[in-house]
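User: Second chain of the day. Same drill as before.
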Amino acid sequence: MILRLNSRGEQVKVIQEFFGLITDGIFGPITHQAVLKFQKENNLIVDGIVGPQTWAAMAAATTDNTETTDYTDSGLIIHEHHLDEDQYFSPPAISETLTERRPLSEVEVSRSKQWIFLHHTAGWNNPYKVIDSWGRDKRGKIATEFVIGGQNIKDNNNDYDGEIAQAMPEGSYAWHLGVGNNEMHRNSIGIELCNFGYLTKGGYYTRVQGEKKWIEKNKSKHYTYVGTEAHPDQVVKLKTKFRGYEYWHKYSEQQLTSLKDLLIHIGNKHNIDIKNGLQNLINNQGAKALNKVDRQMCIKEKGVWSHSNVSAVKFDVFPQKELLEMILEL
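Assistant: Same format as last time:
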């Protein structure tokens, strides 16, 4: 099927879901621009028309070519879905394994993993598509090592819920903490939860010609920042707003189970004390712990932290009650 500007129907929704757009089935200007961008990035004819070649490229981009490479301590499978080698920094060679029970040399300490940072993707539930999208990011080398799938925010589909994908070989790293965190980039492991983040009730904000505009929708419904309506089961309301927002896309029970399992696995494998960092801060400050921004605090105390602890403009991760409880149980 060939689709172009002003086409309508279910196949248009397939295209829109591929690009993470509002799935209204109308091939409008936003969908058109997304197609043009994809065609340019994939060396296709840049005409905005979804024909056989573009369909094939989209299919190739979503092909699940994962291989089972590891298991967590409780037997949970970690699926390898690596980026191309030019999309991450390879681990430096270390002459002796870090699992030996002996003091590490100064050089080895500088190369070892000392932090784990928690993120969420601000997007859909498929961890493999998340990694594929990083591979298309022209900024390059922006990724975390692990991504944990979630439930579909629209219909609760749980095909990927709790599934762990690994985006690069162990010991590698990519940019995931913003500017000025080189040491923590190199010596940390990032984990992304597939989650849209904050939600707004009754509509959503978008930008029209560079200006922020409120799009009015159903007053009783909740929407993502791209206008996707959230299933009621996917909405969590916080007792206290976090970074200006009251409603959030819920981290699923299976996601949090997998996250806990993965944290224990990484902690054991890399000798990271996962009780350090957030657990101590949550014990002292409760939900406010995730709103505390102090880069030097994170540098000083090796352990588990949130992206929100090193950046005041980031929303990941948010203080969902079940997440806080899980961290305290580590």
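Confidence is low (pLDDT under 50) at residues 93-110.

User: Great, on to the next one.
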